[in-house]
Amino acid sequence: MERDEIKELHFISSIENLESILRRGILSHDKASKINHKSVALEDVQDRRRGKRVPNGDLLHSYANLYFHARNPMMYYLVSNGHDDLIVVRVSPAVLDLPDTVLTDGNCASEGTRFYPSPEGLAMLNSELVFARYWTDTNYWPIREKKRARNAEVLVPSLVPSRYISGCYVDTLDKRTRCQAFDDLPAVRIRKEIFFR
Fold first, then answer.
1. Identified catalytic residue from 114, 148, 153, 191
2. Which of 16, 20, 25, 75 has the fewest CB atoms in 10 Å of its CB?
3. Domain boundary assignment for the chain
4. Does the annotation count 49 as an active-site position?
5. Which of 3, 23, 49, 120 is catalytic?
6. Within 13 Å and on the Cβ side, how many CA atoms surround 159?
7. For residues 130 and 71, is the Cβ–Cβ distance under 8 A?
8. What is the pLDDT along the chain (197 residues), one digit of tens a residue?
9. pTM for this structure?
10. Which residues, listed in sequence order, are joined to residue 155 by a DSSP beta bridge?
């Protein structure tokens, strides 16, 4: 993957968390667990992530996690299971240069996912898989690998400061209106295709 392929990074959240995100930033799982928020995390996935460490020894839950693109298997699962309050927070790729940021070539909860230092680890990521529009296949193992890679992550220690937030994507006019009520949210756009609509 080349750096110039990354126009922005994404964070999937409930719209109910937007005020907190704009005030506090995008928090790690550990930090978010200490405040009132509406989690969209899948508990079975969080169970696999709990206790897992990145190569430097820090716990995975001590990192805020972003996706290279939110139109991914996680979003598909959430939408398919009735989550109608989702938004995608857009984040500047400048976070790739924050100290101790880590890249993964797939979902952190999956076996076989590799971790790399950012930004030099971008060279190890397969952009065709990470940015693939579809991850279907006629065979089980290729589907599994494509889904894993499509959920590649950027892990930022502790939190992503709100100054890196460049806007958000929504799928309805109502959500756009709610997001536009925040003066410090630069750009709000409707992008239904990200939400599989």
1. 153
2. 16
3. 3-189
4. yes
5. 49
6. 16
7. no
8. 999 999 999 999 999 999 999 999 999 999 998 998 887 876 665 666 667 788 888 998 899 999 999 999 999 999 999 999 999 999 999 999 999 999 999 998 888 899 999 999 999 999 999 999 888 878 877 888 999 999 999 999 999 999 999 999 999 999 999 999 999 898 999 999 999 99
9. 0.93
10. 65, 102
